[in-house]
Write a structure and sequence with these properties.
The chain is mainly α. It has helices spanning about 1-15, 20-40, 50-65, 70-75, 85-90, 90-115, 120-135, 135-150, 155-160, 165-180, 185-200, 205, 215-240, 255-275, 285-310, 325-335, 350-355, 355-380, 390-395, 405-430, 440-460, 465-485, 490-509, and strands spanning about 340, 345-350, 380, 385. Helix 13 (about 215-240) packs parallel to helix 15 (about 285-310) and helix 19 packs across helix 23 (about 490-509).
Amino acid sequence: WAVWVDLFLFLFLQLASECPESFKKWGMTQTIAYMMGFMNFAGFHFSFAQLVTSLLGLVLGICVTLVPNISQMVWGKKMKFGHITTLQLRYYPMELAERIANVLTHSINFLDKSAELDRHTRTSMRFALESEIDEIDPVIQTMQAAYNASTWERLLFHLTCRYERWKDDRKHVRRFIEAFKDNVGGFDDLFYMVKKVMLSDDHSNYSNLIHDERRSVDRERDLVKRQVFDLSRVTCDHLCKIARPPNQGFDDYDEDAALEEIEGCAAALRSAYALVPALPQDASKPRERLRNQLSCYVFAVLCFARQVCDTFGKETRDIKDKPSEFRKDLKNYFLESFGDQTEDGYKFLWKFRTEADTKYFVIRNMVSIFSCFVMGNFLQGNVFTGFNATCASTLALLISHFPGSAFELNLTRLLGLTLGKVLPIIIMALVSICGNNGTLALVVHLSMIWAYESFFAFIYYTSTDWGSMACLVAGFGCSALIGTRTTTWSSSLFQTQYMEIGQVTACII
């Protein structure tokens, strides 16, 4: 009974937690296998080889991130370590600054030409600008995630004598992370305002103007157009220059002079906007909307300039990097995985307790996985052998995110699992042609494994329709290819593999 309770609680906590999905899948798979072994009357046999190979695979998985682009180096390309986060970290601020500069430049050009645009051109330009603004936040999130991930590469840069590079890059990025974090009145609110201004620029605002209102609108925009452009230009130019990677010959840039220039352009814009005449009392509604649009945009540009000056001032130039501590990171990881920090304190499993979709997800997968565990534990005969974890552990890797998991998705899973179990048998039959022993059989066997895994890995990374199926074929076929030798072929081996196909089919159905 202790094992049943332990397994039930573990599956529940894994499914209800907010840890990554891969963590849930492999955690449940390994636990199910070990718990089934503990319950077996034949006794639990600890596999030291399984533990060693698992740890070896983990180490190799980490080491493979340190492999450079060998295939491109053969053709004369520069050596790059594409999987080391710190090496890409320094370029995120530059990408962010360029995206912001493009948004402001395109929005100014749009408002300048808006009166002459036809309905369809205006609509396409508005939604293109909306997409550009929406793409800013993912860059900030990616930069934050890369900054956090680079913490674990500290030792690597110590060993390669590049610790100063690691420290300077993190300090450079931290300056932008602190500036662009979600604050009231921060950059995210300003760009939201710019987006609303763009989306409110409707064709009817211009077509419904009466009398001389069209000329009045043009005169108002001409009064501030040059000043808005100048302020946006100098602010974005300053942002792009301080976003350049450190220690690349740009250290002589005078930030104080740039901030003074921004202040001067902001004062010029405020003075120009003060010359805009007040609206007459009999102004039409479209006229009022266009004035509000201009006022909001000018206010957004001024606030953007002020925000850049405040968040990238003198006090941020020597911002101290704060490498995370292992104990603190581990504690925060567990707290964030099993609850949320709220204003009222820490709430255990808060997402599970408040969101109906999360409850249905946990209950649905708990029932299906636990039922398969019971089947594998008690059923004997036909394709079941008793105390077999294949059915439940396979289903733990295929957790569903919505009821039914879609009929087409289940068919894809069934196809992937079936091919993953059948194709290795066919491949090993081809290997057996080369003999049972000897160097030739070994070379052909290894070549078949490489070709099989490479082919389905290529499909996984390139095909949106068959990617999930190829992942299952590669994953479930790997163990059969490596664990099968032509010297151990027998009728009992084929019977076992047939029974495994029946079990995984049953778990999907």
